[in-house]
Design a protein that fits this description.
Elements: E1 36-40, H1 45-56, E2 61-66, H2 73-83, E3 88-93, H3 99-113
Parallel strand pairs: 1-2, 2-3
Length: 115
């Protein structure tokens, strides 16, 4: 036999109000607010979903990386900017298997954003 908890917290069907001291990665004002992120494989289906999800969580900038300059960065940037205008998306051709390219990416991110 179960006994109901007398001091149990009230469950809600709606998200917490913005002024409450609560941060969740599942809200648009989540833990990524202001972050600069790098997503590899960004023009592939899973990468595109990750870019959109990171933008939804408040990232300031996303470096959308993939191996080819011919990849469709324009539609990715346009769709993300339309849905989340406060997030800047930068298409960045990049080969993760190349150490020199990785160091160049890190330098570009640090020079542009300081973090």
């Amino acid at each position: 036999m179960s006994v109901p908890a007398q001091n149990a917290p009230e469950l809600r069907d709606t998200p917490a109000a913005p002024d409450e001291d609560f941060s969740s990665p599942y809200r648009s004002d989540g833990k990524l607010y202001g972050f600069v992120c790098v997503v590899t494989g960004a023009t592939q289906p899973v990468g595109r979903a990750i870019v959109l999800e990171i933008a939804a969580h408040g990232a300031a900038c996303i470096f959308a990386c993939d191996t080819s300059k011919d990849d469709d960065y324009d539609s990715l940037v346009a769709n993300t900017t339309k849905a989340y205008p406060k997030t800047k998306v930068i298409g960045y051709p990049f080969n993760a298997a190349n150490e020199e390219a990785t160091l160049s990416l890190i330098d570009d991110v640090l020079n542009a954003w300081g973090r």
